[in-house]
């Protein structure tokens, strides 16, 4: 019965060319742009249920809460869960593409069938990216997932009082699921009738090399910014946690913007999106990430200004000197 249902869904996806991954990110974009715009422009006129659901962390909703929304909140520390998932899912993708290139063989049938199901059907999926480029992109995103797994599970200090809506928790899982699937969806060796090419450094273009360097720079700077936030809650001499309060960060890129970790997240996804230039899904992923990080950075910037009277006036929200 289950197999029959899956077969029927596959036929439906094939017939109507439904790209589930693209649909997910389009929904994410519309939701964040619509709600984000309302939150930044007319928040005071919105129901408390929407305000409470949208906000979390340092800029969480203050004031009267909605009873139903209260039941749908989970600890913000659960952020670490979807990085556990991203850690394993990204390494699986890295294994699959490395194995395909090493063996010079098309991916296994179960992988092709899964990609057909998620990405519009077998007739819709075409090779748009060579295996060299996909390997580079998969390695870079895997590095990000591994580092964030380490940070959220072993370094980051979450406030025990900090909550987030269950929807934020679910979106984290879906984001990494979709982004990692998109790495392989239109890659040579992962489309029927195609095979990966041997990996050689000589095939890496100057532009690709530049994106790798920019990505790694952003990766390191995001880590440094996150460590500055972590150290705010530690005793400088003993390293012991001494507070769970949100304090004003200083130093590094925090001298220029309120959320450098969000800025560098956008930079990294821009590099990935441009590496996978022909793939529409990766353009959608970038728009989603940029929109989400920008809205959160604006709310964070507003919170800093409201809570610290001596907050530096020259500091912008997310883009140095601009926004």
From TrEMBL:
Residues 210-322 form the 3-oxo-5-alpha-steroid 4-dehydrogenase C-terminal domain. It catalyses: a di-trans,poly-cis-dolichal + NADP(+) = a di-trans,poly-cis-polyprenal + NADPH + H(+). It is found in: Endomembrane system; Endoplasmic reticulum membrane. Its EC number is 1.3.1.94. Keywords: Endoplasmic reticulum, Membrane, NADP, Oxidoreductase, Transmembrane, Transmembrane helix. GO terms for biological process: dolichol-linked oligosaccharide biosynthetic process; polyprenol catabolic process. Belongs to the steroid 5-alpha reductase family. Polyprenal reductase subfamily. This is Polyprenal reductase. It comes from Drosophila navojoa (Fruit fly).
């Amino acid at each position: 019965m289950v197999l029959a249902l899956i077969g029927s869904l596959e036929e439906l996806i094939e017939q109507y060319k439904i790209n589930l991954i693209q649909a997910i990110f389009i929904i994410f974009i519309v939701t964040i742009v619509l709600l984000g715009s309302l939150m930044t422009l007319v928040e005071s006129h919105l129901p408390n249920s929407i305000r409470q659901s949208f906000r979390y962390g340092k800029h969480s909703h203050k004031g009267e809460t909605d009873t139903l929304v209260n039941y749908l909140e989970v600890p913000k520390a659960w952020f670490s869960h979807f990085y556990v998932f991203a850690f394993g899912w990204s390494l699986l993708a890295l294994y699959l593409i490395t194995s395909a290139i090493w063996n010079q063989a098309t991916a296994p049938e179960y992988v092709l069938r899964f990609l057909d199901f998620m990405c519009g059907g077998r007739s819709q999926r075409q090779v748009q990216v060579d295996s060299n480029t996909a390997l580079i992109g998969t390695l870079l995103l895997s590095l990000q997932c591994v580092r964030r797994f380490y940070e959220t599970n072993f370094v980051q200090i979450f406030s025990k009082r900090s909550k987030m809506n269950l929807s934020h928790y679910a979106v984290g899982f879906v984001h990494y699921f979709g982004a990692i699937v998109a790495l392989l969806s239109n890659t040579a060796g992962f489309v029927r009738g195609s095979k990966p090419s041997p990996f050689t450094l000589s095939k890496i273009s100057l532009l690709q090399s530049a994106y790798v360097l920019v990505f790694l720079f952003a990766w390191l700077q995001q880590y440094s910014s996150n460590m500055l936030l972590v150290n705010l809650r530690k005793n400088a001499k003993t390293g012991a946690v001494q507070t769970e309060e949100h304090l004003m960060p200083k130093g590094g890129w925090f001298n220029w913007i309120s959320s450098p970790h969000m800025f560098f997240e956008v930079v990294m996804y821009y590099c990935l999106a441009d590496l996978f230039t022909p793939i529409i899904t990766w353009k959608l992923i970038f728009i989603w990430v940029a929109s989400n990080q920008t809205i959160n950075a604006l709310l964070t910037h507003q919170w800093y200004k409201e809570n610290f009277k001596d907050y530096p006036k020259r500091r912008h929200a997310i883009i140095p000197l601009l926004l």
